[in-house]
Design a protein that fits this description.
It is built from three helices and no strands. The chain is an all-alpha fold and 190 residues long.
Length: 190
């Protein structure tokens, strides 16, 4: 049994050999790693590179689209600002025209009202003058008939002749007008 125990003791590594694997393990491990590395480089790396390139292209396209969108937004904002300024100018022009038209309408209405007032005043004055003439003529006729009747009673004879009546009435009215004129001049002098 001793002989079997010494064989076992000889195969047991000692010192730094405890930390290192056997040479054949290292060689076979290197072969397996080389095969796996070859497979990864042959098939895995191109696929990964393709995916990364595709992703980089998508990111680049997204950045270009974002730049284009920003440029379009800036252009749209500029157009909107210009259109807004134009709309404001147009609104100011419309306001000015409306104010001018309103002023013209007011002036026209005032002018027409003034003309209508003048026409109404002139018509009223004509009507008053006509009524005054009519009243004077009516009064002249009434006064004339009263004067003829009074003169007939005073004189005691009838004034049947229309020419005589007309002369008597005219003389009587002339005397009344002369008295009225002298009274108005003495009143105005006082």
């Amino acid at each position: 049994m001793v002989a079997s125990g010494s064989v076992v003791a000889e195969n047991v590594p000692q010192g730094y050999e405890l930390l290192l694997p056997a040479v054949y393990d290292i060689i076979w491990s290197l072969v397996v790693v080389a095969i796996i590395a070859f497979a990864v480089v042959k098939w895995g790396v191109p696929r990964l590179t393709g995916i990364l390139d595709e992703r980089a292209e998508k990111i680049s396209d997204g950045l270009k689209q974002a730049e284009n969108a920003e440029a379009m937004l800036a252009e749209a904002e500029e157009r909107t600002g210009a259109e807004l300024a134009e709309a404001r100018r147009e609104a100011a022009g419309i306001r000015e025209r409306a104010n001018a038209q309103g002023k013209e309408l007011v002036d026209d209405a005032r002018r027409r009202a003034g003309e209508e007032a003048e026409r109404t005043t002139a018509a009223a004055e004509r009507q008053i003058e006509a009524e005054r003439r009519q009243a004077a003529q009516s009064l002249r006729g009434d006064v004339g008939s009263l004067a003829v009747e009074l003169a007939s009673r005073i004189v005691g004879e009838s004034l049947a002749d229309s020419a005589a009546q007309s002369r008597v009435v005219d003389r009587f009215l002339d005397e009344l007008e002369a008295r009225q004129t002298t009274q108005s001049t003495t009143t105005s002098e006082a």
